[in-house]
Design goal:
about 45% strand, alpha+beta, 3 helices
Amino acid sequence: MVDKQKKTKEKFSLIQRVTEKATTEEAHGVYTFTLSGLANKKEIAARVRQDFKVTPIKIHIVNLPKKSVTIMGRRGTRGGAVKALVYLKQGDKITHSVPIKK
């Protein structure tokens, strides 16, 4: 029998986005993560509870489209990702998993 938590852990990972917009939204209790892999809102909520010991109020999933680029006469694509916006109640915080350099 496969453990559900172990199966979920292998399916996707949450990577905290450190951008200017994401940092300003953290003051309002909204944390932004990049998803690597496929996940739904319930799986993301379970991972946040497991990793950060906080319970999210709601979660929004945003698909960022790929963009067409031309570099030195060659066409290609760049970008394309899936973001998860995790809303927490007032007083709950998530510490940065990535050290921020000053």
